[in-house]
User: Fold these one by one.
Assistant:
Number 1:
Amino acid sequence: MGISHFSGLFVLLCVGVGGALLTLAGEHGFYRLILPHIRRQQNLKYWLHTSQKIHRALNMTYEDVKRQRAEREKRLVGLKREDYGFNPA
């Protein structure tokens, strides 16, 4: 194997390290400059709420699902009674 083979590998290594450093600089700039600006805006605060709903949906147990379904049915029964003018109090 000649020097041209190893010089090509060295160039590829330098390109890879340079790309990694550019990616690192881009991520650092995003988290330091852009993300705080997005979080401060009033109309873009829904992203955290959406991610929490996804997390909850993926990590619910069967008991949580049953409890949530019972609460939803209780609310629906209460709404139907109010629609028909039924007031127990």
Number 2:
Amino acid sequence: MAARLVIAVNATAGSGRAARVGERAEAALRAAGHAVRRLEAGSPTVMEASIRAAIATGDVDGVVVVGGDGAIHHAVNAVVHTGVPLGIVAAGSGNDVARCLDLPHDDPDAGLQRVIAALAGERPAARAVDAVRVSTGRWFVGMLSAGFDAAVNERANGMQRLQGTPRYVVAVLLEVVRLHARRYRITIDRDTRRLAAVLVTVGNTASIGGGMRLAPDAKVDDGLLDVLVATPLSRMKLLRLLPKVFTGRHVDDEHVSIERGRVVTIDVDDRGPVPVTYADGERFGPLPVTLEVVPGALLVLT
């Protein structure tokens, strides 16, 4: 069918690669017979607002986002719970959302062809997946970090010369000198525990940082959140664990635990600086936060 599409491009993603991919995507979608409206935006926030405005007209059959996890994050916040499916052409540095949705994550042209194929039938072929509603009013689809992992994300976001996994590995090495435990209060489905931890991550998907499988068994359609906690450990111990994160074997360590639930609240239980959280690679704000998984809240073109 001929679909009415909005294509949103984060021109800065992947060191400018997304801009070039966006031009190819627009041309290919038009060649496939679709009506395409390209959104140009100076920032992801403006892009999100533009997508919302386009959907509000009632003349949009699908939104195609070209970029990395940050661009996808803003597109998700615009389309979640609208019934409008999201097509993903991953062209960023980490592309963990595409990876965990079993979409092409290292070949933007393959991602584009997947979107075109999904639109080829009488109705768009879409998969319903879970999204996570946050007490701040925002949504995310991947992972939320609230400990050392959030500090690494903040450091990595300021490193423009490196991309993908190397950027996160270097960020870990730079941040590990400041590693220290905090007291957290974590509630999972009304079960509250107080503990000291260096890392607290809530995953709707399995990986972060370009394939670092922090929550290796997390699934985007099981209606559950995987809550990973790493209790206090030395800097050398953390560095020895780092290579295991890429295979998920770190979960066998005595300092690491994972529990699952539908509603999770995280807060600090000491007097230190309030940690900042990150979700889908985007700065999300300080603790406390409450997260609720909403099954099937997001439609993704497959």
Number 3:
Amino acid sequence: MVMGQYNTLLYYCYSTIEDGEQFAADHLKFCKSLNLTGRIIVASEGLNGTVSGAAEACKTYMDTVHADPRFASIDFKIDEVDVPSFVKMHVRYKEEIVHSGLRDPNIINPQLKTGVHLEPKEFLEMKDEEDVVILDVRSNYEHNLGRFKNAITLDIENFRDFPDKINELAQYKDKKVITYCTGGIKCEKASALLLHEGFKDVYQLHGGIIKYGKEAGGEDFEGKCYVFDNRLAVEVNSVNPVAISTCYNCGKVTEKMINCANPECNEHFTQCDECGTAMEGCCSDDCKAHPRKRVYDGTGYYVKVPQPVNMKEKVTLALSRPKIG
């Protein structure tokens, strides 16, 4: 049941969409008709979205999406929020619903083969077994803010770097490997790639960290979970919470995640309130002095600012393109 004045929905679905570009355009109109805000990625392989709005509008959205046979199995993660978690509504067509660079369906196809899905309570029971390895497949800024106790983390800036790290994981080929991420979407491809590379016993946390927090109390998840909306970070563990992240500037323990106020940097990092005030929401003195620095309001969340177009470079590129006909 949908509760509260506003909801934020997190979801994904790997399901073939024949005319993705047209679907994206139509879906944007539908979302706007419900006064939803959020960010949805559409690809021929499926949907990946976070949307937010009035509870009734979110219910209508879920009911309508579920009525489409392609998306009937979507597992919506629902959060009650005080205000919508986005400012605008974007629906964009891309090559993948999560950028991995793994586009050959003959090698990686989550609709055909992935790791065994573990429900949160199954994960809770299995995670501490001696022959189990818990693998975080998220980016540095995400697992620096919060991660499962004893999890293996990778030094990656984006998920597309994950395939290059497979060799570092070879020592775990004889273990039971459980992958996890925020909502489960990255694990679909990560676990599929591990199987393709010869890992035999591969599992994934179904619904990710968010579902685990809701259904299993978030036990042994240390810190907060980074989310891709204006909340930036959410609580997960109601059983044995502990803070693990520290301020990028002074080293003080803090769980506050922000984006650098310099839009040309926009680094994701943790910063305590004292340093946030002193640094005006910037990660460095150079960013603090940058002429395009945004006004820091204490949240560290900013609506994306378009980068200035280099017209000279744009004209040069246009002239260099081969003519047709």
Number 4:
Amino acid sequence: MSVSDLFKPLTLLHGPAMRNRFMLAPLTNQQSGRDGFASEFDQEWIRQVAQGGYALVQTCATHVEETGIGFDRQLGIFSDAHLPGLAEMATSIRKGGGLSAVQLHHAGHRANPMLGGIPAPASDYTVPGVRALPTEAVERIRDSFIAGAKRAELAGFDGVAVHGAFGWILSEFMSPQFNDRTDKYGGSLENRARLTLEVIEGIRRACGPDFQIGWRLSVERYGLLLEELRDITADILDRELIDYLDLALWDSAQIVQDGAFKGQTMLSVFTELPRRRVRVGAAGKIMSAQRAGQLMDEGCDFVLIGRAGILQRDFPLQVEANHFYESPKLPVTAEYLREGGLSERFINHMRGWQSFVIRGSY
């Protein structure tokens, strides 16, 4: 498949089609107000990427409960008071010609008490001195995800992306290591996946027929079992519960090191599944036009751009103009990011990433 195929439209189960195969990954940037309100820096970031040629732009992880906050200056969607700022973001994306989605997030046991978070573990032993969530609290968090989706729809977004990755609450409940519950949300894989499924199915019932639902899945760490994740993903794809699956891989080319799929690419474990009309894409070190094209050959319907989108806000337009485009080599100076339009808050966040900002550069 040639790089030019990345610019073919892609239909989704619900709502409008993607105009091409580029999706902006949900990028944590820690530049919102400390009350969860979208800041001027959020708005400027969204305005920049909205003009960058993406088919779909996701917000950063946006917490659905005030006490579910995971990191400082996190965007919120737990109150109707957040709607004006969110609506401005949705409008900017629409003006740029792309589809829009809010990534819905709850930090679970990693909710940060220093920021007003209340750790919400699946099990008693995860956080010292903190008891597991009672069943009714799990159901409340489920309903908060659904309420967040309804707010996103009211704000004018085309859909939401449910954050089921990186050990946050939905991923935590899926993990046999972090979930030893004996109620309906623990034990069997079916029970451990119940919270994710109830969130997705609840959003579909609560929102309009054109509203789009994505699901971000990671397959590493936090006690997650690849074979189990493959099984639950196969069920979700077969039942067409989502519009798109976002495989959050640290490296889209990584190889499975052990187990039943040893020697295969991690990506192929999921792209070889029957997907019916659900679209499947991947993130993970996609830093060039050629790598994006290769992923289409490897079974992806679209690609998610993260690091490359921070370095160059219009990555899709760069690829369209040059089919051999390559992102700047990392690390880069803070001044390079500043000249490109990143806020000081965003730059400070990127300093925490290994080998992204040259140490000592200002």
